Amino acid sequence: MGYLGELRANWRPMLGAVLGLATGYSLSSYIVSMMAPHMLKEFGWTPAEFAYVSTLGLISVVMLPIVGRLTDMIGVRRTAMIGVIVLPMIFLALSFQNGDLRVYMALFLVQASLCITTTMTVYSRVVVQYIEKARGLALALVASGPPLVGLAGVHILEQFVADHGWRAGYQALAAFTLACGIIALLMIREKKSTAAEAAAKPKRRALEDYPTIIAMPAFWVLLFALLLVNLPNTIVLFNLALLMKANGMTDSLAATMLQAFFIGQLAGRLISGLALDRFPSHLVATFSMLLPSAGLWMIASSMDTTPVLAVSVLLIGLAFGAEGDIIGYLVVRNFGVGIYSSVMGLMTAATSISTNIGGIALGLTLDLTGNYDLFMMISGATVFVGSLLFLLLPLANRKAPQPALASAE
After folding, report:
1. CA-based torsion, 351, 283, 273, 337: positive or negative
2. Can you identify the CATH homologous superfamily of domain 3-407?
3. pLDDT 10s digits, 144-170
4. Which spans in 336-372 are helix H?
5. C-alpha to C-alpha distance for 92 and 326, rounded to whole angstroms
6. What does the DSSP 8-state code read for residue 10?
7. Backbone angles phi, psi at 338, to 5 degrees
8. Please, are residues 241 and 37 in contact by the beta-carbon 8 Å criterion?
9. Which residues contact 32 (CB under 8 A, 6 or more apart)?
10. Distance of alpha carbon 182 from alpha carbon 140, whole angstroms
11. 20 to 30 Å CA-CA from 282: which of 95, 100, 237, 272?
12. Pick from 299, 303, 302, 229: nearest CA to 261
């Protein structure tokens, strides 16, 4: 089967994965960034308090490896069903907030615990399970769902909230995500007897797999790289609109900057996906992950013009988009299909740790300086160093023993 033939043959489950990912937990980060100014204004919460809330996402450090292993054991559809049911309920509950920050924190905690079953850790398994020659492009197409929905929906949601209020916005999102999630689950239904599924099931016990995984040098290279490059994620996921307003943007311009981010994210995913199928993956990873360091430093500078901020946000979006393809590709390349989601769960947990450390650092620097500049400078430096670690992957693989699970593709 040819390069594009694989995509044509598996269009239905892939489209289901696109829809499920686009309207799952990934969507909530865009929603938080859009809704945050409205909630802060109505409830009197401070940006520092709001930044600290994001640290509750540390619960996902525990849950993601469990979710990854569960996906390897029972499949994508049954695992994703958990988040498809819970996420709309969270959006509905958010619409009835009374201003008590503890209520918001509790809802955030439940969302971070259960709705991660609708992330790339789960849905990307549809790709690696059935696609090999066009794997980079397929991962990019699946991961493009969230920025496509964000790009198309940011102004629609902004206008809807302006006309009907943010509470009605959350209620509309509850209905939308529930409908889309059900459709996605129906599209990715798989026959239990396929050879691909049989090959993808873990052949060993968890107590055997995990020690083997952590003994591989490639695991530690990826882990430390992700810990460093994802430190500024708290800005992207929860504070981008607030950051833009702190740099003099109006609500309308802040929404435009969010669109620039979505465009960058979409472009980054498609470009990196195609590149991964053609060039050494460690070079693609290094180049892609270097981009946001320049963007972060530009935002921290005194050049607060709209074009400079737009370019900065675009660069951050390019890398944020590329990362989803790159990590999935590197994981299956180094660890195989059989325990793909188990390893992805660990890597995504590392991303969550980094994001939450970033949330703590952001809150501290906001309290200390009253602005975002110090955090942007520090996180730009960590991104720069972390991106260079991907260059060590070929050396790590040469020195590593090749266990059966790593070559079980």
Report:
1. negative
2. MFS general substrate transporter like domains (1.20.1250.20)
3. 887 777 767 767 888 898 889 999 999
4. 340-369
5. 34
6. T
7. -55, -40
8. yes
9. 237, 238
10. 22
11. 237
12. 299
- Does residue 154 contact residue 262 with C-beta atoms inside 8 Å? yes
In sequence order, the 6+-apart residues with CB closer than 8 A to the CB of 303 are none
Q: Map tokens 């509309």 to a residue.
A: 172
166-217 pLDDT tens trace: 999 999 999 999 999 999 999 986 545 444 445 545 455 666 778 888 888 9
Q: Token pair of 373, please?
A: 């500049």
Q: Amino acid identity, residue 320?
A: F
Contact (CB, 8 A) for 237 and 32: yes
- Please give the structure tokens belonging to residue 189: 């239904």
Q: What is the structure's pLDDT at 408? A: 38
Tokens of residue 265, six digits: 């994210």
Where are the domains positioned within the chain? 3-407
331: its two tokens: 């994981």
| Paired tokens of 61 | 């450090």
What is the Rg, in whole angstroms, of the alpha carbon atoms belonging to the chain?
Answer: 20
Q: Other CB atoms closer than 10 Å to residue 357's CB: what's the count?
A: 18
Residue 166's identity, in one-letter code, is W
Strand, helix or coil at 320? helix
d(CA 353, CA 348): 9
Residues 186 and 183: their CA atoms lie apart, in Å, by 5
